[in-house]
């Protein structure tokens, strides 16, 4: 092989190798940019809505779930539970649920819910973030003879009624929070999404 006639196969090999390296480098440079455009798994998990089947939820029972790393409760209230809910200004700190940070606009009512019998609450005490216990039984010896049922935070003694309203004298300063949610149908709730106007009117 002379100097004036270099081996064509060697030239093609070197040319192909450089093209491959260049293409790989471009892909490596482009991948972080493309992947940054897609939401991370962590971001999707933290903001994703949760679909819940309540078809087997019996009266008086509670379902526990996690949404945005927070506990959420769904309670099917009985008629006697609903009858016990009042808006006594002397008994509750925010009896009419005026604090707009504690519930969506659709839940600013006596029962703090889209449908009276179905209660959806974040299970986080508004004092220091403990998880209150569900205490549905009336006249609970532990909580006093006037206890009508609700939620009790054992950390510092805050009491909430069966609509999540905080009792006067409790360390907690606000009602339990109602998360955004909507009904897909009579047996399915999506926590994390607001209802349409049509869905609110059906409630």
Q: What would you say this structure looks like, in words?
A:
The protein is of the alpha+beta class. The chain has four helices and nine strands; from the N terminus they run ααβββαββββββα. The chain has helices spanning 8-37, 41-47, 79-84, 197-202, and strands spanning 50-53, 62-67, 70-76, 118-122, 133-135, 150-153, 158-160, 181-185, 188-191. The strands form three sheets. A three-stranded antiparallel sheet has the order 1-9-8, with no helix packed on it. A three-stranded antiparallel sheet has the order 2-3-4, with no helix packed on it. A hairpin with a 2-residue loop joins strand 8 (181-185) and strand 9. The longest helix has 30 residues, at 8-37. The radius of gyration is 29 Å and the shape is globular. The termini are far apart. Mean pLDDT is 83; it is low at 26-45.
Question: Helix and strand layout, with pairings?
Answer:
Blueprint: H1 8-37, H2 41-47, E1 50-53, E2 62-67, E3 70-76, H3 79-84, E4 118-122, E5 133-135, E6 150-153, E7 158-160, E8 181-185, E9 188-191, H4 197-202
Q: What's the gist of this structure?
A:
The protein is α+β, with helices and mostly antiparallel strands. The protein has helices spanning 8-37, 41-47, 79-84, 197-202; strands at residues 50-53, 62-67, 70-76, 118-122, 133-135, 150-153, 158-160, 181-185, 188-191.
> How confident overall, as mean pLDDT?
83
Strand count, sense and barrel status of the largest sheet are: 3 strands, antiparallel
Helical region count? 4
Helix percent band? 10-25%
Keywords:
24% helix; 3-stranded antiparallel beta sheet; 203 residues; globular; alpha+beta
